[in-house]
Write a structure and sequence with these properties.
The complex is a heterotrimer of chains A (543), B (208) and C (399).
Chain A: E1 5-13, E2 17-22, E3 36-40, E4 44-57, H1 60-64, H2 72-78, E5 83-96, H3 103-107, E6 114-115, E7 125-128, H4 131-138, E8 145-151, E9 158-161, H5 162-167, E10 170-173, H6 180-194, E11 198-203, E12 212-213, E13 219-220, H7 223-227, E14 231-235, H8 238-242, E15 250-251, E16 254-255, H9 261-266, H10 268-271, H11 277-288, H12 292-298, H13 301-311, H14 315-330, E17 334-335, H15 341-351, E18 355-359, H16 366-394, E19 404-408, H17 412-415, H18 424-431, E20 437-443, H19 451-456, E21 459-462, H20 468-474, H21 481-489, E22 496-501, E23 508-512, H22 517-522, H23 531-542
Parallel strand pairs in A: 10-20, 10-21, 11-18, 11-19, 14-15, 14-18, 16-17, 19-20
Antiparallel strand pairs in A: 1-2, 1-7, 2-5, 3-4, 3-7, 4-5, 5-6, 8-9, 8-23, 12-13, 21-22, 22-23
Chain B: E1 2-9, E2 13-18, E3 30-35, E4 40-53, H1 71-76, H2 80-83, E5 84-97, E6 100-102, E7 115-118, H3 121-128, H4 133-138, H5 146-160, H6 165-178, H7 183-193, H8 196-207
Helix pairs in contact in B: 5-7
Chain C: H1 5-39, H2 42-54, E1 64-66, E2 74-75, E3 83-93, E4 104-115, E5 120-130, H3 133-136, E6 137-139, E7 144-146, H4 150-174, E8 182-187, H5 200-220, E9 224-228, H6 235-244, H7 260-266, H8 271-274, E10 282-283, E11 287-289, E12 302-308, E13 313-319, H9 320-323, H10 326-342, H11 351-360, H12 364-380, H13 389-396
Parallel strand pairs in C: 3-8, 8-9
Antiparallel strand pairs in C: 1-11, 2-10, 3-4, 4-5, 6-7, 9-13, 11-12, 12-13
Helix pairs in contact in C: 4-5, 6-7
The chains are: A alpha/beta (543), B alpha+beta (208), C alpha+beta (399).
Chain lengths: 543, 208, 399
């Protein structure tokens, strides 16, 4: 185990962190902003993050007149002595060291890392974190501890506490190309494996169920291929159901009767609805109740004018609304009337511990995605509310609804400040934790998401972000923003993420684990040598 | 080997008359004064050397001719060897007592008229394994700037330790630490002790 | 500062002007004198000087009797490959009448410089404190004739030669095999003319040691010479005056000689100017000195010659046993000229004498030191040190 000393504490304040002078011979280039380091105090071990790196010189004249044509010898001598570096270190957690002279203290169960309550004194040693340090802080893999990857400078698994992860809504962010859906798949695998929650995934681009070619040309397995029949596949697209080997289990139809006012309002932008649309829909609902949309779409020009006269609605607005909403009717998966049974079946499956992926197939426009996701989620929410009430009444553990994690992409469409208050997702993000439903929002523009929603996110996993507003948004409500901002900015585009929040004891930058054969097997997938066909046959055999 | 006799002595250094005219010990070299009675060995670093008339009132004059010059002058004027003297000053840098090396000023100045001796390599290694004595060198005030004395000492020790590059690196860092607030002074010393590319190449070859 | 430097500097200027004005006339007389030197037959001059002496004419001046031609010039031979020059010089801390204790210190410095294949040098001094009656008085039983002033100087000369003698004996004792030629040089005259005015018993006492030492040197086979730099002597010029004098040289006031002007000019001409025709390395012929004291020198009677050492005409005095030996004389001439070549300064001065002087010299600090040491030693032995009031006031210089 390496225990490499990096420097000593020379300055600091509890509020602003510690300044550490790097030892001669330690170059700044072997350290990274946001990397996990350890300060050895006299009584406590401080698990810390590097928040900044400064270059200094003992004599300011050196800076104004750097030596010209310096020999390697002189450069080597000056670095670390006359010219040196300091790093700003943020203690995040501390661990009381056992008093080794006291055998009782050694025998006592060690308490885990605690929030930082003090800082170490001068000349405390800063060192690289060891495997033991990581394990102490992030836990050992297994159970609810799910290895997400390794630290940037070391090959040690860093674990996410999935039990904590699903307790609250979470976010996965990163500009495009940072592998968000891959990250989501990784986390979801963990959740499935550890059985801490069931998943409902709105799979806009058909990425989660079956194998898929990555950007570098590799084929990676889908959840169905890894977890078999534990994962059910619903689809909006009938064609998907007919595909051999990677067919959907259920084709979902949406009835006009199921579409509510809020669904339509959410689609205002997609449907080019005017400001007046909301008022008009209100009048329609008053008049036709649950049939309002069907009735509106069935009305002829004359009937509509007649209705407008009777109800006092603006004829132009109503006519425009009708015209715009006819787009919905034209969608292949929309039927005039559909029973809620299909959706309820799905919810029951979830309740039995199955995981559901809803594929959109060809119907992957934003309109489809918004409409269906919102509609389905609303139903889920209603059912979970009911279940929770029932459980609260009966207090029977069997009635306790399984924790559910709903994964949505393009989350800002549902959660932007304009609509977040009305959409079911907005409601879930803000208050549904109590009904055991949480969100896993995936987005590349976190700045477009309602700040109130952002601040509710328990755990954030973020890849590289370059837009200032997005970085600010991701760091909403996080302490030590400056340190983390540096860490975030310094991430590589690929495979590197910063994890912070509820599921980790302290923020940490990671290189995400490989999503490969070893991973599938760790998740309990059938042997690769059997080939995908056999895998799928097994899967059906069991069904 | 005895190389001179102390003719002036203080708590911080001494002046000795060299046994060889015009050839004082190298600037910066480590010399020793043995005090058998106290079982003590006092160490000093040569801080300057000079050859002057025995009588401070007499100035040297030109003696060369077209055919008699350089070494021949001393042959043509045998009295020169008797009216000139070469002396060297040395800064006290520590002592060996009770089997231990101390790098601070000895309790007493070395006695007048005692012999100054060279220090053999093993002893030099032992003494220069610690570098606290650099501080004493830097605080010395003499005809040669303390920076140059320090540099000369480092060069000399580096050479006597058999071009010990590891030692040189440690010494250079120690100097950088001591002169951290005076960049110019630091560079002055570093330029003067830089072993140059040749040594780096030689060392690499040695490693191979 | 009571010395009025302003006034003195003005007078210095006047002096310089007067000298400059005098020069052309001097120049002319010098040429006449040198012409005379060339024209006088040495035999005739010798004869005239002899006649005068026999007639008991007491010259008011010292005259030189030429052994050879007056205007002869002899070039130095090259010095031998291996040889040794021993120079000797002395200085003293004279007795101080202001002090309660009476003592003096003599310091004889010497430099033995060996050249050639065995080049070497020995520079040292013999120092001695004298405080006993037999040292302090020439006649201690009567506590008569204190040794001070002229007598002390003479005493110093004696010590010098004795030291020289001892050094040589010591060296002879040490060295075995073939000895390179040695030349002994002392700074100053061999003619102790200052003793001339002393009573005969005083002269006897002092000269005895001096002549003893010279005899030893002669026995050891070492030529001795006195080296007189910047000499003021006019012995040869005076001889010229005797030559042109028609009357008695004691009656100049009544002189009607046509060459009276030249005669008076000769009184101002020094021999070193007269012999300025000598080329570098050349010496004059030998002359015998007429100094009265020499009558007591016997075999050590002193002859002299002038020598151009390059930049200066010096006077070299040698005992007759040296001048009579052509080989020794030639060696001496060669060595002295060689010494001048090796001199670090200009005009040249023999290094052997220079170093001997350096060894001999007693600095002011050393004088003070001796005084302090004496006082301390006396104090330790319960002797109070009394100084005269004058001496005390000089030391304190209280305001």
């Amino acid at each position: 185990m390496s225990n490499k000393r990096l420097g000593v504490v020379v300055d600091g304040a509890f509020n602003s962190g510690l300044t550490v002078r790097l030892d001669p011979g330690v170059t700044t280039e072997q350290l990274r902003i946001g990397s996990f380091v350890v300060v050895e105090g006299q009584r406590n071990r401080y698990f810390s993050l590097i928040s900044d790196i400064h270059l200094k010189a003992t004599d300011p004249r050196l800076l104004s007149d750097p030596p010209r044509a310096t020999s390697p010898f002189i450069a080597h001598t000056l670095s670390g002595t006359s010219t040196y570096a300091t790093v700003e270190v943020r203690p995040m957690l501390m661990l009381e060291k056992p008093d080794e002279s006291d055998p009782r203290a050694l025998l006592e169960m060690r308490r885990g890392p605690q929030p930082v309550k003090t800082i170490p004194i001068h000349f405390a040693e800063l060192r690289e974190a060891t495997e033991l340090d990581f394990a102490t802080v992030f836990g050992k893999e297994g159970g609810v501890y799910f290895a997400m990857g390794t630290p940037l400078t070391m090959d040690i698994p860093i674990c996410l506490n999935l039990a904590h992860f699903v307790e609250r809504s979470d976010g996965i962010f990163g500009q495009s190309g940072t592998g968000k859906s891959f990250l989501a798949r990784l986390v979801i695998c963990g959740v499935i494996k550890s059985k801490v929650a069931v998943n409902l995934i709105f799979d806009m681009h058909d990425e989660y169920a079956f194998d898929k070619q990555t950007e570098d040309g590799r084929w990676v397995k889908g959840l169905r291929q890894i977890f078999g029949p534990q994962v059910l596949i619903y689809s909006l697209d009938e064609e998907l159901a007919r595909r051999s080997g990677r067919n959907a289990d259920v084709t979902l139809k949406i009835g006009l009767n199921q579409i509510e006012e809020a669904d339509v309002i959410l689609l205002s932008e997609e449907l080019n609805l005017r400001q007046t649309a909301e008022a008009t829909i209100g009048l329609l609902r008053d008049h036709f109740r649950g049939q309002w949309l069907l009735k509106l779409l069935q009305m002829t020009q004359e009937e509509l004018e007649e209705w407008c006269k009777n109800s006092g609605a603006h004829a132009g607005a109503a006519s425009s609304l009708q015209r715009n909403l006819k787009r919905l009717q034209r969608q292949e998966y929309i039927v005039e009337e559909a029973p809620f049974a299909a959706l309820d079946d799905m919810i029951e499956s979830l309740d039995r511990g199955k995981h559901v992926i809803l594929q959109f197939g060809r119907h992957n426009s934003v309109l489809d995605y918004l409409l269906v996701s919102n509609l389905v989620t609303r139903r889920v929410r209603q059912r979970y509310e009911e279940k929770t009430r029932r459980y609260e009444e009966s207090k029977n553990p069997k009635d306790k609804p399984r924790p559910l994690m709903i994964t949505i992409e393009e989350a800002h469409k549902f959660l932007n400040p304009a609509v977040a208050r009305q959409t079911t997702f907005g409601i879930i993000a803000r208050e549904m934790r109590k009904y055991n439903v949480t969100l896993l929002v995936i987005d590349q523009r976190p700045s477009s998401i309602d700040p109130e929603v952002m601040s509710q996110l328990g755990t954030r996993i973020t890849g590289k972000l370059t837009e200032e507003r997005d970085i600010d948004a991701v760091l909403t409500g996080v302490s030590n923003r400056n340190a983390l901002r540096g860490a975030l900015e310094s991430l590589d585009t690929r495979q590197e993420v910063l994890i912070m929040g509820h599921a980790v004891p302290m923020p940490i930058s990671l290189r995400t684990r490989q999503y490969d054969e070893a991973f599938y097997q760790a998740m309990g997938a059938p042997e690769a040598s059997q080939g995908p066909e056999i895998g799928i046959r097994d899967l059906f055999g069991e069904d | 080997m005895r190389i001179g006799e102390i003719v002036e002595t203080t708590s911080t250094g001494f002046v000795a008359e060299s046994f060889t005219l015009n050839r004082p010990p190298p600037l910066g070299s480590l010399v020793a004064v043995s005090l058998p009675a106290q079982d003590m060995e006092i160490y000093a670093v040569v801080a300057y050397g000079q050859t002057v008339g025995l009588d401070p009132g007499r100035r040297a004059v030109r003696r060369s001719t077209e055919i008699v010059f350089d070494e021949a002058i001393y042959h043509e004027h045998p009295e020169l060897k008797h009216i000139l003297r070469t002396e060297f000053g040395a800064v006290l840098v520590g002592y060996l007592a009770e089997g231990q090396v101390w790098q601070h000023l000895p309790p007493q100045p070395p006695p007048l008229h005692f012999s100054v001796q060279t220090v053999e390599t093993g002893e030099l290694r032992r003494f220069t394994d610690h570098l606290l004595y650099f501080r004493l060198l830097l605080s010395y005030n003499g005809p040669v700037s303390p920076l140059q004395v320090l540099a000369a000492n480092v060069r000399e020790v580096y050479r006597q330790r058999g071009s010990d590059r590891a030692w040189l690196d440690v010494a250079a860092r120690e100097i950088a630490t001591l002169l951290k607030n005076d960049h110019e002074a630091l560079l002055t010393v570093l330029y003067a002790i830089d072993p140059g590319e040749a040594s780096a190449i030689a060392e690499r070859r040695g490693q191979l | 500062m009571p010395l009025k430097l302003g006034a003195v500097s003005e007078q210095i200027e006047h002096m310089a002007q007067a000298m400059a004005a005098l020069s052309p006339a001097q120049e002319q007389f010098l040429e006449q004198a040198q012409a005379l030197l060339r024209s006088i037959p040495a035999d005739a001059l010798r004869l005239k000087l002899e006649q005068q002496r026999q007639r008991q004419v007491r010259f008011p001046w010292l005259v030189a009797t030429p052994h050879g031609s007056l205007c002869g010039a002899i070039l130095a031979h090259p010095a031998p490959v291996d040889f040794c020059v021993i120079g000797v010089d002395a200085s003293s801390v004279p007795p101080d009448r202001h002090r309660s204790v009476r003592f003096y210190v003599l310091n004889v410095g010497y430099a033995a410089l060996t050249y050639g294949r065995y080049a070497d040098a020995v520079l040292d001094a013999e120092s001695q404190l004298y405080f006993r009656d037999e040292d302090l008085y020439l006649f201690p039983e009567k506590r008569d004739v204190p040794i001070e002033g002229t007598l002390l100087n003479a005493r110093m000369e004696v010590e010098s030669l004795q030291t020289l003698q001892e050094v040589i004996q010591h060296r002879a004792h040490r060295s075995s095999g073939e000895r390179p030629p040695i030349v002994a040089l002392r700074d100053g005259p061999l003619i102790l003319w200052t003793l001339q005015s002393e009573p005969q018993e005083v002269q006897d006492k002092l000269l005895y040691g001096f002549l003893q030492a010279m005899s030893s040197l002669r026995q050891s086979g070492i030529p001795l010479a006195g080296y007189i730099s910047y000499t003021d002597s006019r012995d040869v010029a005076n001889s010229l005056r005797v030559w042109i004098c028609q009357e008695s040289p004691n009656e100049c006031e009544h002189c009607k000689n046509s060459k009276r002007d030249l005669c008076l000019a000769l009184a101002k001409i020094r021999d070193r100017d007269l012999f300025n025709f000598l080329a570098t390395g050349e010496r004059s012929e030998l002359f015998a000195s007429s100094s009265q004291i020499l009558e007591r020198y016997g075999e050590h009677r002193v002859d002299f010659f002038y020598l151009n050492v390059g930049g200066e005409i010096v006077r070299v005095e040698v005992p007759h046993w040296v001048s009579a030996d052509a080989e020794w004389l030639s060696l001496l001439h060669a060595v002295i000229y060689d010494q001048s070549r090796r001199s670090p300064g200009f005009p040249p001065y023999p290094p052997a004498l220079l170093e001997a002087h350096e060894q001999a010299v007693i600095t002011t600090t050393e004088r003070r030191l001796i005084e302090e040491m004496v006082e301390r030693a006396l104090g330790l032995h319960g002797q109070s040190v009394l100084r005269s009031a004058k001496d005390d006031s000089k030391r304190r210089r209280g305001i």
